[in-house]
Amino acid sequence: MIEDKNQQRTSLENLGEFGLIDHLTKNFDIKHKSTVKGIGDDAAVLDFKSKKIVVTTDLLIENVHFDLSYMPLKHLGYKAIMVNLSDVFAMNANATQVTVSIAVSNRFSLEALEDLYAGIETAAKIYNIDVVGGDTTSSTTGLIISVTAIGELNEEDIVYRNGAKPNDLLVVTGDLGAAYMGLQVLEREKEVFKVNPQNQPDLDLYSYIIERQLKPEARQDIVKLLKDLDVKPTSMIDISDGLSSEIIHICKQSKVGCDLYENKIPLDPQVISTCEEFKIDSTTIALNGGEDYELLMTISQEDFPKIKANPNLTVIGFITEESRGMHLVTRGESRIPLIAKGWNSLSDQE
Ligand SMILES: [Mg+2]
Hints:
The chain has 2 domains: 12-157, CATH 3.30.1330.10; 169-348, PurM-like C-terminal domain (Phosphoribosyl-aminoimidazole Synthetase, Chain A, domain 2). The chain is built from 10 helices and 13 strands. It has helices spanning 16-25, 73-89, 110-126, 178-195, 207-214, 220-229, 243-254, 269-278, 282-288, 304-307; strands at residues 35-37, 45-46, 52-61, 94-104, 130-138, 144-153, 169-173, 235-238, 256-261, 295-299, 313-321, 326-329, 335-337. The protein has a 7-stranded mixed β-sheet, with helices on both faces. Strands 3-6-4-5 form a 4-stranded mixed β-sheet. Strand 1 and strand 2 (45-46) form a beta hairpin. Helix 2 (73-89) runs parallel beside helix 3 (110-126).
């Protein structure tokens, strides 16, 4: 589907590992004072003075987490950084550094890796983070990308998953389900392309949901917004596996229950229309779709006046005593127990 317009193809074998790292990272500059030494020695040296540090890591594997037949390498590099930054922001921290390691087979050319690193560089520039290390090695099969992200914050600003209290409001950023529906469209077009390679798909109708799948943005702006509004959530988590399983993580770790209102779940019109086209229930997609990289948080009732007019934040329910359990209150006002499905299991559903 995505044609390789770059006809030049330089084999990786001619470069060797050291030449390759140097080549791929030569444009990366250092932006943070906390980076004392970046790439170029045995290890990076970081100095955070009296701040607390958060560290998170994610592994992305070809044909498990991404499909290169519709995922351009530049987007993949960008997304690999976003997936990790999202976890840093979910701690209410400021992301500062990342390390990036890749394993590649000789099916990839130098030009392909340059595209991947161009995406990483763009993410580092926009999100103001330093790339301070990494490794490249060979793989006998597909592409593997491992990113570790580091963030800093003051101890009193840390937000864990376990601080939700009964009567807190359940709040979500952005809208949900778009990344999963974008994936459904891309998978469908891939099958069409297999049958008829001349077919040029018209994807204009799906531009928002495809962008949410191929080029997600981690919510750095929300960490700043919460600070500006003087709101510290009582708990927070990023939505990587779907709203349902993230709510369950917060409730179980905080030892509370919740009522989530179906009619409050924010959905983009393109998600609604694409769900209708695919004959899938949009609430199911928002609950279990995954890869939205929005933030789910709980906020004390006292802070409601500070957030209520903000278009980035939607109240979708409230926290209850643990003994009340975790429920979805449907449009028809029945209470259905919330279950964690995760987006992989969606393929098994009827
Ligand atoms: Mg997470």
